[in-house]
């Protein structure tokens, strides 16, 4: 599978055989993949509440209502009360983590303040929580045919067509979900 960070900046697509109900038909943007483990955020799980304005009010970030609205999604089951903004690289602050040349992850109030004021990065997703894997765990799950990977693109990362994101991610690989087996195996 190459170097330990080969999945950084890629999308993980859950196989139909995914047994963990938290990840069934999920699409995950991998923010970091190292020898110590991996971290990513789910892109196709919207959150009905709290909305962006309600979240800003809870955090004391002004103005409420915000001058700019962004959708809030579930980034994963780990630390689901912690917010992460996955965004374009045209705006960064101290503590922002460049994933690659196209995506940045920021987890502080400064990015929320900038967005509320109508500024900040041109493209952004606010995600609550994240998906995490211990050392070698994600690599093993890939060997067990739990995940496929594909390069990320702006449409899959930033659009809000959540119900079709899994199918569209598979389509990037020219895979029809109906043709995938629910059984894993090795040739």
Automatic annotation (TrEMBL):
Check the record and name the SUPFAM superfamilies matching this protein. VC0467-like
Q: Which Pfam families match?
A: DUF179
In terms of Gene3D superfamilies, this protein maps to:
VC0467-like
Which family does the entry's similarity section mention?
Belongs to the UPF0301 (AlgH) family.
Protein name as it appears in the record: UPF0301 protein GCM10010909_23300
């Amino acid at each position: 599978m190459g170097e330990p960070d080969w999945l950084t900046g890629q999308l993980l697509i859950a196989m139909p055989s995914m047994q963990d109900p938290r990840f069934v038909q999920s699409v995950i943007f991998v923010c970091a993949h190292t020898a110590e483990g991996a971290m990513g955020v789910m892109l196709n799980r919207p959150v009905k509440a709290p909305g962006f304005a309600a979240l800003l009010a809870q955090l004391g970030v002004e103005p409420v209502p915000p001058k700019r609205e962004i959708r809030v999604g579930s980034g994963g089951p780990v630390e689901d009360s912690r917010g992460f903004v996955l965004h374009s690289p045209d705006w960064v602050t101290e503590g922002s983590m460049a994933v690659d040349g196209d995506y940045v992850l920021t987890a502080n109030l400064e990015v929320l303040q900038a967005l509320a004021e109508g500024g900040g990065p041109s493209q952004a997703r606010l995600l609550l929580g994240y998906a995490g894997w211990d050392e070698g765990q994600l690599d093993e799950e890939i060997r067990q045919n739990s995940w496929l990977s594909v390069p990320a693109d702006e449409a899959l990362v930033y659009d809000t067509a959540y119900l079709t994101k899994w199918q569209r991610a598979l389509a990037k690989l020219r895979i029809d979900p109906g043709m995938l087996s629910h059984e894993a195996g090795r040739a």
